[in-house]
């Protein structure tokens, strides 16, 4: 007490002041200057920017990939549209290629949004999920080559494309390049994701105790929330292709398919809401709806290969099959994780995932709330 400090907490505050860029005590207080505290909260309100080399590397890698693929897809879109005869009416076959390309473009724009979200939240689970997502886009790009080739050949036979047009020869090298580009960047993203895991994992200790069981509950919650974000794209991708291209549907089936889009968005939104609030009734209802969705996609997958309906799906059957299979896998994983999250209700996780903070250091705390715990370090 020789220096006039009233308590140990005052010593801590002095230490914090010396650690800050503009201390609120010492010289500033003696000179009558205001403490420099607001700048911290202002920084917290700015748009997120990566702060580490590996976070920057992941963001830049995905942006470069997106720019390359989007440029190619836009070229393919323009080239194909220019090759069509203007006096022809649209058919499912003529609409298939624009639908492929538009969905591909949306897929990479959505990926960039998820990349930003993952880095902002330091969510390693979502980063790993993005690598798997990229692998799914690689599969789609490989299918796209054969689908577009068949579509151009069929349209040429139907006199939708002039016989002298070299559209296939022009687009073929670019269609081959897309899977190669995505495959290369998938490998790069996976290597960076491994580094990001080491970078993000330790911060969980600021908010979750060293209890290994609590960390596993938090991990289950994080996997579930990440799955919901990926469910959205693959369900939407399947439904858009189905609505735009598939013909011969009954009016009731078509209307139900259209109505399923906003209903699914609502279900996925409420799924996260019920989980954070540990509402068992809401979660039981959500899991029931997941099973309904699983039945729907299984039914659609089987129907595509029935002889009586095969002609309706033929222009886009491979693409629809890939989306249906991936969506079914995601729904099964979502049901498993939703059930595990429900089983964890009432075990102490809710206070950690319900924190709502604003501004400055508190905003940083909110970001940390979606990080992946390092399960290698238990008590």
Automatic annotation (TrEMBL):
The name of this protein is: Uncharacterized protein
Q: Which UniProt keywords apply?
A: Membrane, Transmembrane, Transmembrane helix
Q: Which InterPro entries match?
A: UPF0658_Golgi
Tell me which PANTHER family the record gives.
Answer: UPF0658 GOLGI APPARATUS MEMBRANE PROTEIN C1952.10C-RELATED
Species of origin: Erysiphe pulchra
Record's GO cellular component terms: Golgi apparatus
Record's keyword annotation contains Endoplasmic reticulum: no
Any stretches that span the bilayer, and where are they?
54-77, 97-116, 123-143, 174-197, 218-248, 254-274, 281-299, 319-346
